[in-house]
Amino acid sequence: MRYLFLSLFLSMICACSTPGGVTQSSAEEQTFLLGTYDEPGVHEPGIYRFSLAADGRLTNLGRVVEAENPSFLSYNKDRSVLVSVEQVSEGPGRVVSFAVRGDELQAINRQTSGGNGACHINVSQDDYVMVANYGGGNVELLKLDGTGRLSEPLDLQDHRQRGGETPHAHSSYFLNDGSEVLCVDLGTDEVWHYRLDKQAGKLRPATPPAVKMEDGAGPRHLTVHPGGKWIYVINELNSTVTQLSRTGDALTVVDSWSTLPEDFTGENFCADIHVSSDGRFLYGSNRGHNSIVAYRVDARTGALTALEHESVAGDWPRNFALSPREDYLLVANQRSKNITTLKRNIKTGMLDFVTSTPAPIPVCILF
């Protein structure tokens, strides 16, 4: 069981807002893709590319491809294909695949996401695709073929049929080489657990089918510790991070920690969460307090100790990413329309402001 979640960690490397491979235009410069929300008359809708210089400065290299509200992005294993959700204004969302041609993206095909409010997408090591629909309260399974073309939807799991509160599926993650899937549902306050039947192309509920968070917690995203021992879930509505462990198929809540300073009394909604590749530090974003909380991870127990709350120098940090070398942490501030560069001390985990760069409604950073 020691490495049970290791493949989940590896699959998340290819997903939006997580460190991964990098396109380098020089030895000192790295580039990343930016998913955005549309703003008619202000910027062109689509996916943008930015460069990150060695000193932390960012440069907007322009729009790569047109897309409607491409709010979450993910690469396949060899980075030859990019997939994105499209949060359309009316009706079910869409999923689109793009061929990666150097610094260019070429659309291959589109499929329905199976529900309203498509908000998260992930690709397994063997090219299965999971999409979470916030408004639809469901998750959809598709697959990429050898050319990067998306299949027709293979399965749709509606969390309304599972009971509980109104579902709002917010993210999905593959583990164990894609044989299992975890789906985080903000509405039911649960992390749903599925087995992926690859022969039938279906999701089968595990036993037990879910682990319950605190009532009203609003779980949104998760990250897995690289040692494979623990999973950490960030809860949007009660501003906490919850540690999970696993015995067999059962996921168990270990403990929870606040993402906020003790003296903060304002409104806050958490968003994103990531762990450093050495497993020593964990980070989460606070929308309202407008900060990144940094924790130290106890190597023996996985318990968290808050180190600091670093300002994001902007408003509504929906998404953030560690750079491939993990010496920078970049924050996508949705409402203030800027990306903030924070310098990261790899030894201490602490963050320091470097610069802030205007961006077209940034909501997803993908290296």
From TrEMBL:
Pfam families from the UniProt entry: Lactonase
GO terms under biological process: glucose metabolic process
Keywords for this protein: Carbohydrate metabolism, Glucose metabolism, Hydrolase, Signal
Organism this protein belongs to: Neolewinella aquimaris
Protein name: 6-phosphogluconolactonase
Gene3D superfamilies attached to this UniProt entry: YVTN repeat-like/Quinoprotein amine dehydrogenase
Region forming the signal peptide: 1-17
EC number(s) per entry: 3.1.1.31
Root EC class: hydrolase
Domain of life: Bacteria
Similarity comment text for this entry: Belongs to the cycloisomerase 2 family.
GO molecular function: 6-phosphogluconolactonase activity
